[in-house]
Structures are given as C-alpha cells and as structure tokens.
Amino acid sequence: TEITEKLEEAVTIWIKQIKQVLVESEQMRREVDDIGPSAELEHWKTRMSSFNSLLDEIKGSRVKKIISILQAARSKTLKQWKELDSNVTIAANEAKDNVRYLYTLDKFFGPLAKASPVTMKEHVPSLMNTVSMIYCTSPYYNTSECMTSLLLKITNQMINTCKAYLCEG
C-alpha cells in the first residue's frame, strides 16, 4: 500500500500537469491584428508537436507500468487518468487533423503574400474552394470560430500584400 500511495501521488501530479496543458491549449490566442494565414498553420503544427510529445510520454513503458500497478491495486486515481488520457488523445488528433487540412492551403500562402493585386485575384477562387472543402470535410476545423479566424487571416494577408504593392508603386 505504501508503494501504491507513492505511485498515486506521482499520477496525481501528472494529472495536474496535464490538466494545465489542456487548459492552456484551450485559452484564447493573442495575435497581432494583421497576422496572415501561415500563422494558423504554424499554431497547429506547434500544438500537434506538443500533444504528440505528451502522448508519447503517456504511452511510454514507465507510465504504462505505473498505471498497470495502480489498476491491480484498484486505485481511484485511474478514473481521472483515463479521462485525461482520452482528452490528450482527442487534442492530438484534432491538431494532427487541422495541420493536414491547413497544409492544403499552404500552396496559396506564397502567392497571397508575394503576388500583385491582379495576379492575386487569380488564386482567390481556388483558395476559397479549398477553404470550403475544409469546412465541409474537417471533423474539427469546421466551426465558425476556426473559419472566421482563418478567413480573417487570409483577408489580412491580402490587405498587407495590397498595401505593399501600393507602397512600391
């Protein structure tokens, strides 16, 4: 029982740390007003990396051994642990899926940033078709919050490109 108590203490600390990571990942992002769409991809790539690392730790042999010992001891901390394990898996899957979908837009980010307003116009229909496809097929990114944020960043990039074009001329 002494070993079980020590292991429960360790798992309780992990639970608190993982809860903190999950809470921080759900907080509103602070971004500059004129940020472009490539920042959205970078955000999700960073989040995917963080959650994949956390998932690797959780699925590691050391943690598995401790969890199996606590299962044998019928520990009460396992209920919370399983819930958090599930939440981390969901967050990792969401980030991975969002990165996969946002990569389909990556080919538009360069032309959007470097084109003249006239040539930029040529890319807008296929860009919007791709955004529409993401909205229709993504299980995670099809919320109004995500779409609004993405469209705002695309618009910001178009405005910044047009401003730069006007300043050159």
From TrEMBL:
<protein>
    <submittedName>
        <fullName>DYH5 protein</fullName>
    </submittedName>
</protein>
<dbReference type="Pfam" id="PF08385">
    <property type="entry name" value="DHC_N1"/>
</dbReference>
<dbReference type="GO" id="GO:0005858">
    <property type="term" value="C:axonemal dynein complex"/>
</dbReference>
<feature type="domain" description="Dynein heavy chain tail">
    <location>
        <begin position="5"/>
        <end position="167"/>
    </location>
</feature>
<dbReference type="GO" id="GO:0045505">
    <property type="term" value="F:dynein intermediate chain binding"/>
</dbReference>
<dbReference type="GO" id="GO:0051959">
    <property type="term" value="F:dynein light intermediate chain binding"/>
</dbReference>
<dbReference type="GO" id="GO:0007018">
    <property type="term" value="P:microtubule-based movement"/>
</dbReference>
<dbReference type="InterPro" id="IPR013594">
    <property type="entry name" value="Dynein_heavy_tail"/>
</dbReference>
<dbReference type="InterPro" id="IPR026983">
    <property type="entry name" value="DHC"/>
</dbReference>
